[in-house]
Structure to design on (684 residues):
């Protein structure tokens, strides 16, 4: 496991906004895991954009030539109330390369913006666990192994204020020096000043791969079919699910938009559209109902909690 | 101090801490960390350490009062990381139980011990020969505390709180009701030596006592022996302790002198309405001169009988416009000699008051006239 300094930490605007929203809407303190990736950046980008040049690498020559420049990017997070333990056991093993556990965060209202007793013990545990370490992208010359050493602290000011509502600070914990090094948190948005990020973009969708091959009469394919009953069942279930979503939009029907039947083109599209709306409407109703149920359960839990605390 | 907006489980822990702490811990500030800010669950504790105070924020979660609290240390202690080394070792947080009110106190005491060790380690790392030597001679003193102070605009200094005198001061005074152990400390502040300076500068010295001790023995009044260049603590402390021991013996003896004086007053003034039975510093009598009844408050200084008692007269019949009884100014200039016998002191006081009360009566009537 290597204790290499991270040069900078990046987070996309929407991710940070959603993290802050989660923090401000939670009834109490919360904490959670930060996922993302760390990439080894090539030396200073040759950009003609002055804004990106100003924020570029400070002095690559003074840092040791062998230490790589690391850039951590937070892509997603997982949050839960802070009295519950961090769900470290339920992490995918081995960690996927697209989103590894790179750190954790803690959000507590109206507290000073510095790591607490619990923050430092948790960060130390994460940083010193070998099982959680991961390999950054593009590490070619020397294999690096990094622990999840990032820590993002979210607080709010001691007095409630109208404009200044949040504070946050990002750290990298260095186990060799036992110190929390403050790191700047770059917020990535869309716009000309973020053009350099287009190059470093890597598509990493977590959408599951659904096997939906075309049924062909190829004899070779028939031979290869040595599916077990389990995979067959799973395939059928997936197919059924897909069919459900495509209900009313069969390929045969789409045929009617072309050729001889295209005379009633408008009526057909309108029909499809209204069906789509009806479907969406049903879906929102489902969401509404389940949200109401969640809220009801949440109220009930709060009542029980207050009872335990002796506050009724 | 503890309001009802603190969840009962947390408030039980606070009350236990205030009642059982071996030194006085205060809560300076409390506020809420909940979204709707109704329940108080964040507290700033002020904890005495090395004759200074450290401020720690104890962060509970009112919604989950069964969860252990978190602690945020002071901004200058960012490298103080208790419980980090040694993964599975037990500490006050690992077997936390919110239903047992003693746990918060145990946590604070454990963290304070670790903090003392942390500061001691920091001081030990200072590269200063003189300091290393002084520490080696003082380290055996039980209860010694030390800390580093440094700031951007301040030179580095090492502070010591050296406990003096092995005797139990609480037992020296009969009938004392002190809850905490009383102690006298010598505060020693060493500037951290520069490599190039040849003669180490003298440390700054100050006597400090626990605040309750002031009613009986004032460290401000005792003059410190002078510090000679090239001296060390091992030479200095025995002299100082001997001096203090004598002064404390005197202070104990003086309590008896004051007690005798108060007893001598009683036959003349009657039974006192109120008297300080432990330190014998205060006594009040109800007196009458003709139809005028009034109270006399005696305050006996620590230097009694060298210094005479200060008197205040308070009328029982005259009130100002706020309905507060009229009082005289502090009277401490009247015939007095420390060489008088105790009984003579009491008699002279009585004679003086017999005259002074007439002046006081006139003074009261004048105020009453002005109010009409």
């Amino acid at each position: 496991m290597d204790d290499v300094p991270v040069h900078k930490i990046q987070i996309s605007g929407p991710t940070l906004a959603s993290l802050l929203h989660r923090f401000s809407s939670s009834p109490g303190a919360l904490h959670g895991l930060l996922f993302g990736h760390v990439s080894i950046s090539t030396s200073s980008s040759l950009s003609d954009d002055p804004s990106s040049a100003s924020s570029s690498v400070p002095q690559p020559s003074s840092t040791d030539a062998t230490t790589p420049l690391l850039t951590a990017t937070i892509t997603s997070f997982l949050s839960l109330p802070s009295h519950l333990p961090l769900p470290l056991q339920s992490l995918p093993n081995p960690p996927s390369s697209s989103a590894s556990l790179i750190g954790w965060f803690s959000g507590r209202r109206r507290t000073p913006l510095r790591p607490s007793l619990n923050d430092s013990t948790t960060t130390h545990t994460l940083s010193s666990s070998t099982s959680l370490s991961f390999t950054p992208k593009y590490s070619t010359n020397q294999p690096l192994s990094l622990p999840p050493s990032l820590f993002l602290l979210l607080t709010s000011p001691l007095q409630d204020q109208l404009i200044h509502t949040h504070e946050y600070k990002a750290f990298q914990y260095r186990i060799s020096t036992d110190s929390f090094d403050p790191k700047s948190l770059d917020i990535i948005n869309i716009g000309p000043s973020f053009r350099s990020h287009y190059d470093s973009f890597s598509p990493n969708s977590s959408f599951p791969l659904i096997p939906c091959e075309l049924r062909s009469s190829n004899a070779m394919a028939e031979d290869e079919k040595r599916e077990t009953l389990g995979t067959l069942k799973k395939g059928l279930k997936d197919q059924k699910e897909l069919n459900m979503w495509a209900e009313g939009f069969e390929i045969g029907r789409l045929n009617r938009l072309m050729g001889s039947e295209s005379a009633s083109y408008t009526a057909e599209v309108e029909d499809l559209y209204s069906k789509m709306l009806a479907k969406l409407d049903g879906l929102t109703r489902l969401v509404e109902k389940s949200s109401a149920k969640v809220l009801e359960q949440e109220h009930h839990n709060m009542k029980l909690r207050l009872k335990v605390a002796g506050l009724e | 101090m503890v309001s009802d907006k603190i969840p009962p489980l947390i408030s039980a822990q606070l009350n236990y801490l205030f009642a059982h702490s071996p030194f006085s811990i205060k809560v300076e500030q409390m506020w809420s960390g909940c979204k709707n800010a109704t329940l108080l669950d964040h507290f700033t504790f002020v904890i005495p350490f090395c004759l200074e105070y450290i401020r720690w924020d104890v962060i509970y979660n009112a919604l989950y009062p069964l969860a252990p609290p978190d602690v945020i240390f002071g901004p200058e202690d960012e490298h103080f990381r208790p419980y980090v080394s040694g993964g599975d070792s037990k500490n006050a947080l690992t077997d936390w139980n919110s239903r047992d009110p003693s746990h918060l106190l145990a946590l604070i005491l454990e963290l304070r011990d670790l903090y003392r060790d942390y500061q001691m380690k920091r001081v030990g790392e200072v590269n200063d020969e003189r300091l290393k030597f002084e520490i080696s001679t003082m380290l055996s003193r039980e209860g010694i505390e030390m800390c580093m102070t440094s700031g951007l605009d301040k030179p580095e200094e090492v502070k010591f709180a050296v406990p003096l005198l092995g005797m139990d001061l609480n037992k020296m005074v009969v009938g004392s009701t002190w809850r905490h152990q009383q102690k006298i400390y010598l505060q020693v502040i060493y500037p951290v030596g520069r490599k190039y300076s040849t003669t180490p500068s003298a440390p700054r010295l100050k006597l400090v006592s626990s605040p309750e001790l002031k009613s009986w023995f004032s460290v401000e009044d005792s003059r410190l022996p002078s510090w000679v260049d090239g001296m060390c603590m091992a030479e200095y402390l025995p002299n100082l302790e001997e001096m203090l021991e004598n002064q404390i013996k005197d202070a104990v003896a003086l309590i008896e002198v004051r007690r005798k004086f108060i007893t001598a007053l009683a036959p003349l003034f009657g039974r006192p309405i109120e008297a300080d039975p432990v330190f014998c510093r205060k006594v009040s009598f109800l007196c009458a001169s003709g139809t005028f009844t009034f109270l006399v408050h005696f305050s006996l200084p620590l230097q009694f009988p060298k210094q005479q008692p200060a008197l205040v007269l308070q009328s029982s019949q005259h009130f100002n416009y706020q309905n507060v009884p009229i009082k005289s100014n502090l009277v401490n200039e009247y015939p007095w000699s420390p060489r008088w016998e105790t009984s003579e002191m009491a008699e002279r006081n009585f004679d003086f008051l017999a005259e002074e009360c007439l002046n006081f009566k006139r003074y009261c009537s004048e105020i009453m006239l002005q109010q009409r």
In short: Residues 265-308 of chain A form the longest helix (44 residues). Chain A has two domains: 6-200, 248-308. The CA atoms of residues 228 and 239 of chain A lie 16 Å apart.
